[in-house]
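Re-run with default settings, no changes from the original entry. Doing this only to confirm the output is reproducible before filing.
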Amino acid sequence: MSLKETIQADLTTAIRERDQVRAGTLRLALSAITNAEVAGKEHRDLTDDDVLGVIAKEAKKRNESASVYADAGRSELAERERAELAVLETYLPAQLEDAELDAIAAEAKAEVGATGMGQMGQVMKAAQAKVAGRAEGGRVAAAVKKALAG
């Protein structure tokens, strides 16, 4: 069963259980997946990795929205965004610890043979391939900068 099919099945379950937050979040996620499938010139079915990318993007939106709402004093809206984020995170792989991320960045630096910040793009490309969605890009970039500086 593909990840998209799993989400569809979970949506059906959430509707039966009358779990409004979960059902609404999964509807939005499926809508984003469908939009990604039809984007461009022709329809294409997304792989599980593509679906994970869409879900990660949606999770990032929820996280940013929760921060904005909390800063604006709208705690009820921030809590809703956090609840939706929790639902989306159940479909994402476990996030890497900082030590693991630093080790991957150091390994990517050695693999590329980088000697300075001028080769950050090459090291980022190698590190992103190894991370495979288990850490946000900003965290990966910070680890790569740390590896290149040290």
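The first helix runs from residue 3 to 16. Helices lie at 3-16, 20-38, 48-71, 75-89, 98-112, 120-131, 137-149.
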